[in-house]
Structure formats: C-alpha cells, structure tokens
Design goal:
The chain is α/β, with parallel strands linked by helices. Among the domains are: about 100 residues, CofD-like domain (Helicase, Ruva Protein, domain 3, Orthogonal Bundle); about 40 residues, no CATH class. β11 and β12 form a beta hairpin. It is globular, with a radius of gyration of 19 Å. The structure holds ligand FO1. The site of ligand FO1 has 18 residues, from α2 and α6.
C-alpha cells in the first residue's frame, strides 16, 4: 500500500506513474486543499481536480490543469458582464465545480464529494482531501513588490494565477490549519502504508498545508524510515511554478539541498535528478539518504520509471 502526499501538476504526474507500477487500488493520495477557493459562487479544488483528471487520462497535458478538448463559452459570456475571468474555468470543468458546490451546500463533506467525483471518472485509486475543514493558504507579498498590493496578504490563487506568481513574497500561512482535522482515512492510510511518498510538489505551498493539518507531520516523523520524497527542484529550478523563487524569497536554498533541509525531519530518503548528482553529498549532509534518478517526467513512461525507482 502506497500513500502519497500530493499537490498539483508534479504530484499528478508521479501518481500517473505509480498507478502503472502498482495496482491503482493500492494507491492513496492525500491532496492539498490550501489552494481551494470560491469564484462565481463555485467551490474550486484545483489540486484535487488536477490529480483526478490526470489519473483519468483526461487532463489538458500542455497546461497541466483543466480538461483536454475544453470549450470556453461560459468564460466568454462572463466577460460580457465584466465578471472576473483571470481564473479560467472551462465549460466541461465547470460541471465538476457545480456538482461539488451543490453537494457541499447540501451538507456532504468534501471527502465524500471527492470520492464520488473520482468514482465518476473511473479512478480505482483513493483520493482524500487533507481535511474536510477549510484551510486557506495566504501569501504575503513583499514590501518591495512592484505592485500596488505590495505588503498585502492575498489568497493563493490571487498570487499564483492573477499575479502570475511574478511578485516576491515575504510570508506564507495556512489559515484554519491549526483547527482542522485530517479527513476520514488520512491518518489510517499514513499509519498502514508500506511506503509514504512525498510527491515532487512545491514543499512550501503544496506539501506545507498538508503537513500543517494537526497529526500528519507527527506520523511522518514517527514513520520516517518508510517516507521518501522526490525533489521538485532540478538544477536549481522548478520545472513548473514558483517553488524555486519562493524558496529563495523565504530564506531557503533553492536547490535539492534546500528541499532536503525541509524534509529531513520527516523523510529518510530524497530522490534527486541526475542533473544534481554533484549535490548528493550535501543532501546526505542535510540528513537524508540520497538517490540519483532521472526525475523529469516528460511522458507517462518517464513517470512510471521514476515511480518504480521510488518503490525499489
Ligand atoms: N492555473 C492557471 O495558471 N491559470 C488558470 O486560469 C487556472 C485555472 C484553473 C481552473 C481549474 C483548476 O482546477 C485549476 C486551474 N489552474 C489554473 C491551476 C491552479 O491554479 C494551480 O495549478 C494550482 O492551484 C497550483 O497547484
């Protein structure tokens, strides 16, 4: 049994690899919900949907998020009203948000809605939100930012999509995390997994919120020998998203070594890409066993090869 801590695109790709090398029903993903937000009255769970669509093989592979063969008529119609359209919701994708919002409004918890969406897409793996409670990632924009919002706190999607993660940040917090409880099944799957995999997701804003839910980090620490992590930073850069810049801006080294320093208390092994072979000794000095692998997942076959290496 494999349990993965997952964020967005990098995690979805690794999970796509994992289900090729172990029976999909033996894989559980505990997914970040700190990015969730409400827009046009709809409750959107970007990371849960990215993982669902990728495992179903229906994702927009070029963008990494959303559905393939999407249409944008609703967005065009919203423009007419001057409604915000910076966060693009495709016509087919909208059905997911409509369904989820309706179910949540009628009192169904997010974990149950997530399971029914996964079932509807034919997934055999188990998808769990980290919590049924609201945890919201908030980003403090640095005072030096050349933006009229410099020094302000914004919601994660405002930073990531509206501001195109181009503004320096000085702080990150996870509102609601300390009062949240892990969703049903989260603790059990971490306690019983043969291996726990921290996916190659942003350690600060994708894995950070999951670890901030009380109880989760403690289990990883107590099961450290069974926990492996994959560096999302390759040759000092993130393949997608702001992880490298964010790490540097928040005082971490933007490298596989910086990732090792974050994960060393809770994971025994770090997988790093061949491009970082020269960093292996410094990763070990940070307290993690280091394994060098081809870690770029350009195709599902590359993802399967990386997943297999992580389970070996
Ligand atoms: N990312 C973007 O960069 N631009 C978008 O317009 C956008 C829309 C969107 C809609 C639904 C969804 O599930 C995800 C979407 N994402 C979009 C991705 C998302 O903002 C980020 O990838 C994650 O929150 C970070 O993991």
């Amino acid at each position: 049994m494999i349990t993965a801590l997952a964020g967005g695109v990098g995690a979805a790709r690794l999970l796509e690899g994992l289900v090729q090398v172990v029976p999909p029903d033996e894989v559980t993903a505990i997914v970040n919900t700190g990015d969730d937000f409400v827009i046009h009255g709809l409750y959107v769970c970007p990371d849960l949907d990215t993982v669902t669509y990728t495992l179903a093989g229906v994702q927009n592979r070029a963008a990494g998020w959303g559905l393939a063969d999407e249409h944008w008529m609703v967005m065009e119609s919203l423009e007419r009203y001057g409604a915000p359209t910076w966060f693009r919701l495709g016509d087919r994708d909208l059905a997911t948000h409509l369904y989820r919002t309706g179910m949540l409004a009628s009192g169904v918890p997010l974990s149950s809605v997530t399971a029914s969406i996964a079932r509807a897409w034919g997934l055999r793996s188990h998808l769990l939100p980290m919590s049924d409670d609201a945890v919201r990632t908030r980003i403090t924009l640095d005072e030096s930012a050349s933006s009229e919002e410099a020094g302000c706190d914004v919601a994660f999607q405002d930073y990531f999509v509206r501001l195109a993660h181009s503004v320096p940040v000085s702080g990150v917090r996870f509102d609601g995390a300390s009062q949240a409880t892990p969703a049903p099944g989260v603790i059990e799957s971490l306690e019983t997994a043969d291996r726990i995999v921290i996916c190659p997701s942003n350690p600060i804003v994708s894995i950070g919120p999951v670890l901030a839910v009380p109880g989760i980090q403690h289990i990883l620490e107590s099961r450290r020998d069974s926990v492996v992590a994959i560096s999302p930073i390759i040759a000092g850069a993130a393949l997608k998203g702001p992880a490298d810049r964010m790490m540097a801006q928040l005082g971490h080294e933007a490298s596989a070594v910086g990732v090792a320093r974050i994960y060393a208390p809770l994971a025994a092994t770090l997988y790093i890409d061949e491009a970082d072979r020269d960093e292996a000794a410094r990763v070990e000095a940070a307290g993690m066993r280091c394994v060098v692998v081809p870690a770029v997942m350009s195709t599902p076959a590359h993802a399967a090869r990386l997943a297999e290496a992580c389970l070996r």
